[in-house]
Amino acid sequence: MGYKLYYAEGTASMGVRVLLEEIGAPYELISTTTIRGKPRPSAQLRINPNGWVPVLIWDDGAMYECAAITIFLCDRHQDAKLAPAPNSPLRSLFLQTLVYFSSSIQTAFQQDYHPYRFADKIEDEPGAQRRGQKRLMETLQIIDDQIGENKWILGECFSAADIYLYMLTTWLKPSREHPKLSNFPNVQRIAQQTGVRPSIKLVYG
């Protein structure tokens, strides 16, 4: 069961690649770009007209959106035990956390890195960036509080949610007025624990 992944360094496609490594499924990386104004492969745009990554392809299908791909892969490869089963009491927390990562924390990053998507005029872009930087502090604090004294996001069991959180922490840049990872000790602890996994070292090393 092989996959193809449209891939660019520094993007959410790296998190999906870690998942594929954890699962142990064969995959092929297809190089693309996220640089504004640079052309994307036409096949990528047919699947995701936004031109974003990750885009995942398999024998009889294709999809985009990192959180959706994460859920899809975890459910398709349940032997990897990267997500609670659909009838598990932890399933709701797993889904809630992934969607929060995607809809709230990633949006905050986008406000800073891509302010033109949130401002009508160029002169309004710095305001969008400042709001994104503030939202990073707010949203990461919510996750830090949620984790509390848990060993992992879901408690005692490592999951794809921990991989996703690690990916998000790699985007924090204090030079861009982002909050420091050390401001969120529980997030930092999980990122450090996740960072020693062979899959992380391969993709992010």
In brief:
With 205 residues, the chain is an alpha+beta fold. It has helices spanning 13-23, 42-47, 66-76, 91-113, 125-147, 160-169, 185-195, 198-204, and strands at residues 3-7, 27-31, 55-58, 61-64. The protein folds into 2 domains: 3-80, Glutaredoxin; 91-197, Up-down Bundle (Glutathione S-transferase Yfyf (Class Pi), Chain A, domain 2).
Task: Please characterize this protein's 3D structure.
The protein has two domains: 3-80, Glutaredoxin, CATH 3.40.30.10; 91-197, Up-down Bundle (Glutathione S-transferase Yfyf (Class Pi), Chain A, domain 2). 50% of the residues lie in helices and 9% in strands. The chain is built from eight helices and four strands. It has a four-stranded mixed beta sheet, covered by helices on one side. A hairpin with a 2-residue loop joins β3 (55-58) and β4. The protein is globular and about 50 Å long. The relative contact order is 0.13.
Helix percent band: 40-55%
Counted by DSSP, the helix tally is 8
- The overall number of domains is 2
| Share in β-strands | 5-15%
- What fold name stands as the CATH topology of the largest domain? Glutathione S-transferase Yfyf (Class Pi), Chain A, domain 2
**Cα-based radius of gyration, to the nearest Å:** 17 Å
Low-confidence stretches: none
SSE ordering: EHEHEEHHHHHH
Count of DSSP strands: 4
Class of the largest domain, according to the CATH hierarchy?
Mainly Alpha
- Which descriptor suits the 3D outline? globular
Largest β sheet strand count, sense and barrel closure: 4 strands, mixed
Strand order of the largest sheet: 2-1-3-4
Class by alpha and beta content = alpha+beta
Mean pLDDT across residues? 96
CATH architectural designation of the largest domain: Up-down Bundle
Q: Kindly report how far apart the N and C termini lie.
A: 26 Å
